């Protein structure tokens, strides 16, 4: 056993702040911690120290703090959320939950599907939640309207309009898609209200998967949503919750399905299941980022390799991984690779992520594209790629508006313009045939690292106008008691337990 660092963490029983260590044994990385009252706990956080360190090598981003903290430093992280003045990262995405109700009783979920409409926040409360985002976070602001299932609210179009009225720049909708699939008028009304993107729960391409989680055949419904969004010009991000013994065997098919629906489908964002209010025995399905990436490599026949996934522009190297790829008739042309070295973020990570959300995941209609049209290098937010060409004595093609730099002078592996037809083809392909494949490693009470949450840029807004980093918001002890979520909804103590 070799210790590689210290870690601020919490006791899985009492949630008290305690110190722990990170250590390596048999090439695997673990966190070990000990509470004076509840004993020692050891958790695997990566099965490969080499991959773990590689991700750290590839991570080098600037940070910016929120505009105005909303709480004081009192008990110490993670017990002062709100955002408190110690928090080191601005908001990139604020999650506003507008209902706890849901029309599916999913096996893995945070929402309390038994809640009734009387528990929904009213419009004044929701206005206060949007205003809290504006007060705390720097512009531009991105909000994800979430739940429960937000489309159970008939006044969702008014909520979206309200967000825009308050000055939220980008509004995406997190949905299971059932209402959109059956109600064209409803989709028309949320589009008219100004929704910018749909974040669609999409766990697989077979009904077997949906039957296992929900007891319902949902694949045709998901396909219908994409068809309708294509006609409406609304961008869609597919969001599979991933677990072993559930849908890990379908990740390749999900990516293949997505690739056939670009540019309407802008990305696939895999969310490995994590412990939140569940008993540890139910966490056998949990998968690490590396295990997911290995499955993607295997199930895409090596077209997308583990090394094509670089650290996401997120708080730390271990919060997520992203691959940006072009899609053509022959398959995938991945644009990112850890061999490019450290990400050189030109601006702070929250700002960069907001641009990414607003640019890459927005709608696909031609009239939307000029607003969001990225340069070749913007598409490659891992700008190590263009930096590489500079250090080798060439300029990035993106710095030359007329593209007079001969492509052959740019090394193939570091060129932004890798398509055989050069600049014009590349831009055409980039605009219409790119796909972002990403994943986020949410933390739980076992894997919890203070350094990650104090740098977190995804913040859940509470009904009393606080912003709580997502992993803290969903943090529960091993008895299912939440640190924050249950304070927002006191009845919601059993969130995540199979219904
Ligand atoms: S996670 Fe951030 S806001 Fe919450 S207590 Fe820690 S530093 Fe403060
Ligand atoms: S939500 Fe959790 S995993 Fe995601 S960025 Fe925040 S701390 Fe990292
Ligand atoms: Zn304890």
UniProtKB/TrEMBL annotation:
CDD domains: Radical_SAM (cd01335). The keyword Endoplasmic reticulum does not apply. It comes from the Archaea. Keywords: Iron, Iron-sulfur, Metal-binding, S-adenosyl-L-methionine. Residues 88-303 form the Radical SAM core domain. InterPro entries: Aldolase_TIM, Elp3/MiaA/NifB-like_rSAM, Methyltransferase_Class_D, rSAM, rSAM_sf, Zn_ribbon_HMPTM. It holds the Pfam family Radical_SAM. GO terms for molecular function: catalytic activity; iron-sulfur cluster binding; metal ion binding. Signal peptide: none annotated. This is Molybdenum cofactor biosynthesis protein MoaA. It comes from Methanococcoides methylutens MM1.
């Amino acid at each position: 056993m070799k210790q590689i660092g210290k870690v601020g963490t919490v006791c899985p029983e009492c949630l008290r702040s305690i110190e722990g260590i990170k250590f390596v044994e048999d090439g695997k990385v673990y966190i070990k911690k000990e509470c004076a009252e509840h004993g020692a706990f050891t958790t695997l956080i990566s099965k490969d120290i080499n991959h773990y360190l590689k991700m750290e090598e590839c991570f080098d981003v600037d940070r910016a703090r929120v505009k105005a903290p909303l709480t004081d430093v009192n008990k110490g992280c993670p017990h002062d959320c709100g955002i408190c003045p110690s928090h080191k990262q601005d908001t990139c995405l604020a999650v506003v939950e507008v209902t706890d109700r849901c029309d599916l009783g999913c096996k893995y979920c945070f929402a309390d599907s038994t809640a009734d409409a009387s528990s929904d926040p009213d419009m004044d409360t929701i206005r206060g939640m949007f205003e809290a985002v504006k007060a705390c976070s720097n512009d531009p602001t991105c909000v994800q309207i979430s739940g429960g299932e937000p489309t159970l609210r008939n006044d969702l179009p008014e909520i979206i309009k309200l967000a825009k009225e308050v000055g939220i720049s980008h509004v995406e909708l997190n949905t299971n898609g059932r209402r959109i699939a059956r109600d064209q008028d409803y989709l028309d009304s949320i589009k008219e209200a100004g929704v910018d993107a749909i974040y669609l729960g999409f766990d697989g391409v077979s009904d077997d998967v949906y039957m296992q989680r929900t007891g319902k055949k949902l694949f045709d419904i998901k396909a219908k949503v994409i068809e309708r969004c294509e006609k409406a010009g609304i961008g869609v991000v597919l969001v599979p919750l991933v677990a072993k013994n559930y849908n890990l065997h379908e990740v390749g098919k999900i990516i293949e399905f997505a690739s056939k629906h670009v540019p309407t489908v802008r990305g696939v964002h895999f969310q490995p299941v994590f412990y939140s209010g569940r008993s540890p025995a139910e966490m056998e399905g949990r998968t690490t980022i590396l295990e997911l990436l290995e499955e993607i490599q295997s199930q895409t026949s090596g077209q997308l390799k583990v090394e094509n996934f670089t650290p996401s522009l997120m708080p730390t190297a271990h919060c997520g991984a992203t691959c940006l790829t072009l899609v053509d008739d022959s398959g995938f042309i991945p644009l990112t690779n850890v061999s490019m070295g450290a990400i050189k973020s030109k601006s702070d990570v929250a700002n960069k992520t907001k641009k990414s959300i607003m640019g890459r995941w927005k709608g696909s209609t031609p009239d939307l594209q000029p607003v969001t049209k990225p340069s070749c290098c913007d598409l490659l937010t891992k700008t190590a790629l263009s930096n590489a060409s500079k250090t080798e004595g060439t300029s990035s093609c993106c710095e030359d508006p007329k593209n007079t730099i001969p492509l052959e002078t740019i090394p193939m592996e570091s060129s932004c313009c890798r398509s055989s037809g050069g600049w014009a083809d590349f831009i055409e392909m980039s605009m219409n045939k790119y796909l972002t494949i990403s994943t986020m490693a949410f933390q739980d009470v076992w894997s919890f690292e203070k350094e990650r949450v104090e740098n977190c840029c995804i913040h859940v807004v509470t009904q009393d106008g606080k912003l709580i980093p997502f992993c803290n918001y969903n943090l529960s002890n091993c008895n299912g008691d939440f640190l924050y979520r249950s304070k927002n909804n006191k009845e919601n103590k059993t969130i995540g337990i199979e219904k």
